Amino acid sequence: MTASVEIFRRVYDDEEGVFIEVHPSPDVPDAMIEVSTLGDKKSEEWFGKVLFSMSPDFAIALGLTLVASGQAMKDEKKWPNQA
Hints:
This protein is α+β, with helices and mostly antiparallel strands.
């Protein structure tokens, strides 16, 4: 018998009932991370048809940038450096 295990992570917007999925890229599972909304019609309609891959280092940089930007907007009620 042969078996495989896939690990998927989803970030949900519970109020809208939509999500963005993050998982290893099927093309290069040991080296790339894929972000997708494909396969869920409501998520595709809300976020658009999202499908892109990135390296783990880029994913970390993107994640840190999103956290910093989100926190700044919460604290300052505007985009950082916006007049």
